[in-house]
Amino acid sequence: MPELPEVETVRRGLRELLPGRTIAKAEYSHSKSFPNASVDVDQSLIGATIMDVRRRAKVLIIELSTNYSLVIHLKMTGQLVFRSHKVRFGAGHPNDSLIGDLPDRSTRVTLTFTDHSKLFFNDQRKFGWMRLMPSTEVPNIDFMQRVGPEPLEADFTWKAMRDRLLVHRKTSIKAALLDQTVIAGVGNIYADESLWGAKIHPATQVQSLGDRDFMVLHKALVDVLTLSIEKGGSTDRNYVDAEGKRGNYLRFANVFRRDGQACPRHPNIMIVKIKVAGRGTHICPQCQQL
DNA sequence: CACTTGACCTGTCCGC
DNA sequence: TGCGGACAGGTCAAGT
């Protein structure tokens, strides 16, 4: 579930919390989650000071003073939560924390810093991963080589978006939006939200869209991603930010998870949930027609 | 080749 | 209440 706005929210949180801290200990249990076949963890991780926290698409990159980096993909249920040793609060705490004491049964990796604060990598479904690798190798991994442009960068114009999408002109616009090699960071929530915003049916073939459509879709996508970052991302089930707090975007969502409710543009029309590109897809049947 | 489907996992929810 | 099955959605491998 973490998409660009969620991962960006985590990045901003960690950027405030981690740089300057030095790793004293690393605990990990699940071999698929961490670390990596060929890296000496003690050598490259223990004693390393965190320098910066970056993001590319849905991937987080924690840069270390050892010239190694922790590269993290949260996939669907991953969480990256920082806890200072002094603070203990669980679900129901007034600060809107979604999760309780850590580690819990979904904790895959625990990093302990020299000041006794901790960073927990939780992942209920074990799809996510954390890799440790030389920083110079990060741009060379397959995903980085193939991933498309960042939609919130200045050079991501509507024409740039159109040209990327048209590479896959026979497929549905929804499948194209979800393809990370086309545009970086868009997932199911923001694909549905932006297509509703642009009044485009998700099953529309890319090649049948005109420049007007691409222009409107571009604005809808950029607007929805920007708004979601402002609201701290979307918490549907598992997602929390670097402090364990929920995101608030879904309160502002127009269609996602709103099947059975009225379309904001059509008080008498119900949003319905269909399947497009193998994914649950929410549309207003009035606004979005094939 | 271009595109679609299945696998990876676990927890939750629905219907019988 | 118990239980099987569908579903959740990011990405890559396998299939059409």
Largest beta-sheet characterization: 4 strands, antiparallel
The averaged pLDDT comes out at 91
Within CATH, the superfamily of the largest domain carries the name MutM-like, N-terminal
Number of domains: 2
Intertermini distance: 27 Å
The proportion of residues forming helix, as a percent range, comes to 10-25%
CATH third-tier fold name of the largest domain: N-terminal domain of MutM-like DNA repair proteins
Q: Kindly provide the radius of gyration, computed on alpha-carbon positions and rounded to a whole number of angstroms.
A: 20 Å
User: Looking at the structure, what is the overall shape?
Assistant: globular
Number of helices: 7
The top level CATH class name of the largest domain: Alpha Beta
Beta-strand residue fraction: 15-25%
Lateral strand order in the biggest sheet: 1-6-7-5
What string gives the helices and strands in order? HEHEEEEEEEHHHHHEEEE
Q: Which structural class do the helices and strands define?
A: alpha+beta
**Low-pLDDT segments, ≥5 res:** 90-95
What would you note in describing this structure?
- By secondary structure, the protein is an alpha+beta fold.
- Helix content is 23%, strand content 23%.
- The protein has seven helices and twelve strands.
- The chain has helices spanning 4-17, 41-44, 142-146, 158-165, 173-178, 188-197, 211-230; strands at 23-28, 50-56, 59-64, 68-73, 78-83, 107-113, 118-123, 129-134, 262-263, 266-270, 272-276, 279-283.
- A hairpin with a 2-residue loop joins strand 11 (272-276) and strand 12.
- Helix 1 (4-17) packs parallel to helix 7, helix 4 (158-165) crosses helix 7 and helix 6 packs across helix 7.
- The longest helix is centred in the last third of the chain and has 20 residues, at 211-230.
- The protein is globular, with a radius of gyration of 20 Å.
- The structure holds a DNA duplex (16 and 16 nucleotides).
